[in-house]
Specification:
- The complex is a heterotrimer of chains A (266), B (316) and C (267).
- Chain A is an all-alpha fold and 266 residues long.
- Chain A has helices at 2-27, 29-38, 51-72, 80-89, 94-121, 130-152, 157-171, 177-185, 194-224, 257-260, and one strand spanning 40-41.
- Chain B has 316 residues and is α+β, with helices and mostly antiparallel strands.
- Among the domains of chain B are: 17-65; 142-309, 3-layer Sandwich (Rieske Iron-sulfur Protein), CATH 2.102.10.10.
- Chain B is built from 4 helices and 13 strands.
- Helix content of chain C is 60%, strand content 1%.
- Classes of the chains: A mainly alpha (266), B alpha+beta (316), C mainly alpha (267).
- Chains A and C meet through helix 2, strand 1, helix 3, helix 4 and helix 5 of A and helix 1, strand 1, helix 2, helix 5 and helix 6 of C.
- Strand 1 (40-41) of chain A pairs antiparallel with strand 1 (23-24) of chain C.
Chain lengths: 266, 316, 267
Amino acid sequence: MARKKSDRRRQLERAAMYPLDWLEERSGLVGGVRYFLFRKVPGDTNWFHTLGSATLTAFLVQLVTGVILAMYYKPDPKSAHASIDHITHEVTLGWLVRGMHKWGASVFIILMFMHMGRVFLFGAYKYPRELNWIIGVLLLATGLFEGLTGYLLPFDQTAYWATVVAININGTAPFVGPFLASLLRGGAEIGPDTLARFYSLHMLLIPGALLGLITLHLYLVIRLGVTSPPWSSEAAGSGRPPEPPPAQAGLVRPRPRAAVKGRPTE
Amino acid sequence: MEDPRGDEQRHQPPPSLWPVGFAVGIVCLLVGLIVSWPAAAVGAAIAVVFGFLWARDVVAAGRGPALPGPGEPEAAPTAPAIPAHKGEAAMPEPEPAERFPRSVFLEMSTLGLGGIIGGIVTVPAIGFAVLPAFLKQHSPEIDLGPITDFPEGQYVVATFLRNPSEGEISRRTAYIRNNGMRSGTPSFTCISNRCAHLGCPVQPGGPVFDSKKQTVKTKNGEVDLIPALPAAGFICPCHGGAYDQEGNRTAGPPVRALDRYQFLIRDGHLVLLGTYSVSSVSGSGAQAKIHRYQLTGPGQHIDAPESWLYPVQPPH
Amino acid sequence: MSALDDRRRRFTQYKEDVKKRGKPFYPYAMFHDTVMSLVVVCVIFLLAVVWRYGWFGDALGPLNGPKADPGTTSFVPRPDWYFYFLFYLLRIFKWPESVILATVGIPTILLIILLALPFVDLRTERRLGRRPVAVVAAVLVVISMGVLTYKGATAKEAIAAEVKAAVPSWAKKEGFAGNKEALAGANLFAVSACTNCHTYLGTGSSNLGAPDLSAEGAKGKGIQFQISHLKCPSCVNSGSPMPAFADLGQDNLKKLATFLEASKGGK
């Protein structure tokens, strides 16, 4: 009886796993995700190490809320301000999506700075992670530029005049400044096309760049591994002995290599 | 399991173009049914002819090995096997010197073709994004109404649409003072209200008489004229720039005097043209001597030693 | 070369150690990450709610500002808070020759320092106790950014409408409500861009170097002095950057002077 039940259980399990195996055989994606999830990190990673993923979360919040806002926002100087009013006061839960986007931006920037501070204090920018530090700095600069372009979109007084000053600040860069300023404005003066230009930069070009940089950043994190805190007595972290993951508990558990390949065995 | 080759030989129909003609005929027929009867007839005829030819081929193929083709390998077994290292190579063995150029050629042409594709796509895209910012820049004429609305010797805050077709985004403010006549022509001081530091709006250093506001209808729509008494000149609230009544910098970070509008008098109306930059103004009112320069962005030096940092200006 | 070899050896050692004694990312480290992400999302959500309902006295600002007016003569912009340190730099560098330092120079230098950091600091040492320069630099950066951001955040601006609206409260606090001449002077003070540089009972642009005038009358300088100072500040007080208000006319100057003399610091 017991034996029969376990047979059935195995059958059920195989049926449940079939889509994953199908996917794995054709793409190798499941193996990749599994590698990502079950790769080893030093034993004493701690709360400080969560700042990077927290930043990513904040970015994803921006991505989602931004896409929804784009459904209602009108990047035209004549109607932009009214469409923001519309989103805030009339669209159901529009205030929430806009509020989360507006304040998520601040949280994203704060977390970027905190994450950078953590990496600096842990000395995690040292060999062989120099390149990842540089990508991180570029991410910070790109993220700030994203904030700058987004600041114009509500098209209220503060937005307009802060952008005037910001563009003119760019204009004071030696040699190229005046051209950079004209390029940002889309002309000699802030005109009807400037807002749409900033909108396009804010929701297509810069997020694309951010996504690309984030992918590279994560790739390097996975490839080079997570640094243990500087106070660790050994590179992989001291303290608790490695605790093998429980065999049955957990939603996802590492499976033997043969099964991962996804080929039915006999 | 069957031998796949045998399977192929037995069932695969020979290559034929007739189905294509048949399909074209059907399409022609269907389109003709909607468009015109003769076309439908032609389509039907094509379909019938090609259908017949196709059917004949299929039948002929089914009947037996009438086709040449896979028969060739049958001759091979009679000949003695050629050792792999002898005879003609599948690909002519290139001279060492030749092999290289071929791969170089492929490399170069791949890169070149890729470059062409990239060029065809990106040149218009980037040109579209970049060039409009620099081309076709012109300053519209701004009609501010009859010059009699500007009392002599008094500043007026004029607010107008620089380009009415662009709407509110082109609203600008200028401080305008009628200097009276100078050798027979009216003289005006037309100061732009954009700070020469970073472009914030400067304010008159003195009371603005909102109650005496006057709205004039001109070709540029409504122009608001408000008398003001900028006794202390103009002051920028952002970073503390200060200018005298002629627009000369007196304190704070601005790198030069306030920009001015060119103007002309047409049919008794004051018409503003484009703006230009000013390093300094000596004298005042109608006798002022203006040291004028090409329009330059805020914060950029035009006569100080630092001006070499900004050698070329984009078209304005 | 040997330094590089040493670094390579250490990294290989790290890889081996992690492989042998590390813990799997999932679920151990990922649990922390997930909790932190939850906190982040909750904070964002709460900020949106606080902003929407204007809790804590509208601490997060209005839902929407007035529509952009490129023709305004009385607006003072400020950037988003994370640019306050740059914004405040612009107020610190108040000489024409140094504009480029504040606009482009300092940000560029900061960016170059950040990019160059891993190539300058080549030691393998990561313990903070053994990296005094790094710690000092970090503390200095945090303090200076913090101070600049704080100064930028608390920098006050003179919004014309707000200044005008504040006049009755000035009169009440300073006790010159009954003095017609002083009241007229206060109104003139409010509309003459004085508050672009001076502060008066908390209204006006701070940080531009001009003194607070709430208690100007307490100095006992007299109306005559005030008038001659207004007429030509640099004549009375050599080197003063304040512009001359002589063109306001004797009448207006007298009103202003009366107002200033009536300003005893408020209650």
